[in-house]
Amino acid sequence: MNPNGSDQRRLTFNESDEYSPVWSPDGAQVAFISDRDDPNSGKCAHACFYQLYVINADGSGERKLLETKFSTLHPDWHPDGARISFDTESNLQGDIYVVNADGSGLE
Prior knowledge:
By secondary structure, the protein is mainly beta. It has strands spanning about 20-25, 30-35, 50-55, 65, 70-75, 85-90, 95-100.
C-alpha cells in the first residue's frame, strides 16, 4: 500500500486468522502470526495456537518460520533484518525468543 492508502493488496488467502504483521527493515518481507495450524482455526479468538510466518512483500514465498509447541506472538524484526524476536504463551507463562530470519538458531 502506498503512503496515501492507494494500491492496497491482500497478501494471504486462507480461512485462518492472521495478526501482528511487521515489515522487515528493508521492506522486502512481512512477518506475522497465524492460527492455521490450530484445529479450531478461525473460530478461537485469542486462545488459538499461533505460529510465526514470513511472506515476501509481493505475496510470494510464504513460509512457516519454525515449528514450536507453543504459541508465538508479537513478532518484531531486528533493525539489521537478520533476526526476529517474539514472545510466547504456554500454560499461561510467557517467554521471549529470538530466531534467525531463515528460521534457524532459535534462542
